[in-house]
Amino acid sequence: MYATYNELMKNGWWMKEIDEMDMLGFLRLRAWDAQREQEKKKPRQCFIDEVWPGVKP
């Protein structure tokens, strides 16, 4: 919980705004964002040149 408060305050939020926010809505938003990040990390097919672009034959 402290990490959430700290991150929001670093981004310009005030304590009063954080305390008044819809916490369930915030957690849903965070879950949606985490799911999007996991989708980016899934293995996908690509050519070796994309994996190691600096290696010359």
Number of DSSP-assigned strands:
0
Low-confidence stretches: none
Distance from N terminus to C terminus (CA atoms, Å) equals: 51 Å
What are the secondary-structure elements, in order, as H or E? Answer: HHHH
Count of DSSP-assigned helices: 4
Instruction: Round the Cα radius of gyration to an integer and report it.
Output: 19 Å
Please outline the major beta sheet. Answer: none
Kindly state the mean pLDDT as a whole number? 86
Tertiary shape: elongated
Strand content bin: under 5%
Helical residue percent band: 55-70%
Structure classification: mainly alpha
Any overview of this molecule?
67% of the residues lie in helices and 0% in strands. With 57 residues, the protein is mainly alpha-helical. The longest helix has 19 residues, at 23-41. The radius of gyration is 19 Å and the shape is elongated. The model has no long low-confidence stretch (mean pLDDT 86).
Any key phrases for this structure?
57 residues, mainly alpha, 4 helices, 0% strand, 67% helix, elongated, single chain
Task: List the topology elements.
Elements: H1 2-10, H2 15-20, H3 23-41, H4 48-51
Question: Outline of this structure?
Answer:
By secondary structure, this protein is an all-alpha fold.
